[in-house]
Backbone:
């Protein structure tokens, strides 16, 4: 009998690929998305399309207003950086960092997993082409997994041993795209842009768009999305 797993599903290509990996490993997928006040809420439409294409058992969207805190170009009236070079992206933590976002998301995924009796949580973080976010690093994931088993009834009583799966963490964007293509991920359903236009068209110049386009180019594949530039 397939085991349940919680999949954090943003609607981007990384989370879609992660979901496909969990599916091919035989898990029943329970997708979890977040409406957190992000300026690129078009990703939630993509998350719904991806979830449907993956045949998930259930897709839940949790509303959390992180825009109340601000301090990020994704949740406040702060310009999204555009046209940055690879060196500039590597120079430090960008203003698109949302304070403690993955910790908030993983905490809620952990709660959902404990309710489902699911020991496995899948997250599409990446420590290679990742724009410098501190909550995408292997040491952070290891620390959260330890916390998960200390901070839950199921972990303390030993009925579940929680595992945080990050299958993409050491892969380049090109490797991720090749992997997903082999697993028949439909990347036309995904959305990566931090600052889409009102119609949802990707800007083509923010860090997320630049990394995505570079990944497809290096993979020798055509990106199915249209871009404004």
Residues:
């Amino acid at each position: 009998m397939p085991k349940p797993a919680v999949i954090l599903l943003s609607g981007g290509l990384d989370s879609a690929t992660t979901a496909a990996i969990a599916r091919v490993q035989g898990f029943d997928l329970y997708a979890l998305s977040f409406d957190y006040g992000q300026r690129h809420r078009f990703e939630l439409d993509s998350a719904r399309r991806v979830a449907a294409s993956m045949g998930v058992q259930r897709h839940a969207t949790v509303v959390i207003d992180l825009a109340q805190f601000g301090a990020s170009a994704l949740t406040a009236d702060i310009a999204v950086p555009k046209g940055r070079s690879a060196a500039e992206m590597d120079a430090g933590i960008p203003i698109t960092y949302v304070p403690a976002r993955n910790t908030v998301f993983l905490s809620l995924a952990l709660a959902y997993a404990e309710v489902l009796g699911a020991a496995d949580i899948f997250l599409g973080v990446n420590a290679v082409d990742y724009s410098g976010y501190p909550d995408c690093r292997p040491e952070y994931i290891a620390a959260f997994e330890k916390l998960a088993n200390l901070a839950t009834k199921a972990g303390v009583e030993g009925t579940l041993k929680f595992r945080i799966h990050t299958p993409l963490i050491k892969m380049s964007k090109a490797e991720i795209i090749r992997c997903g293509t082999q697993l028949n991920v439909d990347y036309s359903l995904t959305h990566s842009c931090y600052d889409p236009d009102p119609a949802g068209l990707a800007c083509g110049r923010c860090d997320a768009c630049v990394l995505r386009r570079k990944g497809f180019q290096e993979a020798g594949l055509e990106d199915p999305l249209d871009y404004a530039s």
Remarks:
- The domain at 4-219 is CATH 3.40.50.620 (Rossmann fold).
- The chain has one domain: 4-219.
